[in-house]
């Protein structure tokens, strides 16, 4: 099946991708990630998008972009159309797909967390939908002993039993052990590669796994790119950004990609909880990561305890450098006390949600969304009397966060006429999973939505009331008992 590349994606590839056909070399004129980000931002400001650079009006648009990127340089890059057609044919033969930040299929997790720093282009092979499911990132050194490899394989198997995807880098050692454990147990795996996507995808033992939806391989680098230390370091943030929690099985101290990625996550990015191995022989690297805020892995032995690691963040006895941004201002919540969970021998605090995206950040390479018209409830209801005429005090001005929340609250409650998981709500609203979780948590705290466990799902409390009211109006006590039974079944109790 021939891959369909959007006009925006074709333009972005021409500007940023090496387009390696066989053993060719990359153009030295390619826009760097930073240069492309500045160009994308400038195009939005002048009400254009990447596809316009190859349109009939391209000459004028290129000239308008001259203050950001040299016009002649962009013309040379955009003139590589024949080379692009060659590599597209090559990718097609190997079932490799390509998405850009301008495409709706681009992983929401990457765009929500990395924002403008998300890779302009993502190459992959396998089921793209797996990239929206989160999971556990497992990382570690290449050279480890057999005992540690066995422990890592066990983590992958337990993740498969719990229905959680393993996200890793595909390197020898820890990465491949975690992935192998999950795949052998029938689980799902995402491999974020720093090189050789094409070669890995063509591997015979991988083909069936890719075809049956068990495995997805992705890379921000050309499918034919060879290993590069810088690329290996840079892709680490993608592993963490695609996951819901992370586990460092082993790490050298102050050197290597595993150390650099974990430190970046703990000190700067703070996307997910960072756990470190807590059994077996210790190491200077793991000890140092704990001092930076990483949490000892609680060594779950069953599905239920494994699921708990995705709901926690930091030991309650410490002030963690991992504390993220709250979606809502602290003054808006009646109870700002973190919810604690006992996991093994450790008391943990529920993790905070990431900061929400603005509309322009959600579609960072396309034209900005039109601003939503301001709503005036009093006018819409026909009541246009002023506050002085009704003797009512003026209403306090809502913050942007409150306005946003009020606009989605009704939509979420309508969705939750039946039980739904957070990622299902996220898909229905076309927002990131973290954004959906933040809204759901707010509704739970406000008493509008009930959170059910094992597995975690949500239902609007108004639905429970509806069932209860219908029961009272039915045929006496027998009708009430029948309706209560139906309601309990619906809620999974």
Automatic annotation (TrEMBL):
Positions in coiled-coil regions: none
Q: Where is the composition biased (Polar residues)?
A: 473-493
Q: Where is the Smf/DprA SLOG domain?
A: 98-303
UniProt lists compositionally biased (Low complexity) regions at 379-389
What SUPFAM superfamilies is this protein classified in? MCP/YpsA-like
What are the boundaries of the region Disordered?
Answer: 375-399, 467-493
One Pfam family assigned to this protein is DNA_processg_A
Any one biological process term the GO annotation gives: DNA-mediated transformation
Q: Which family does it belong to?
A: Belongs to the DprA/Smf family.
* Identification of the protein by name: DNA-processing protein DprA
What is the scientific name of the source organism?
A: Allochromatium palmeri
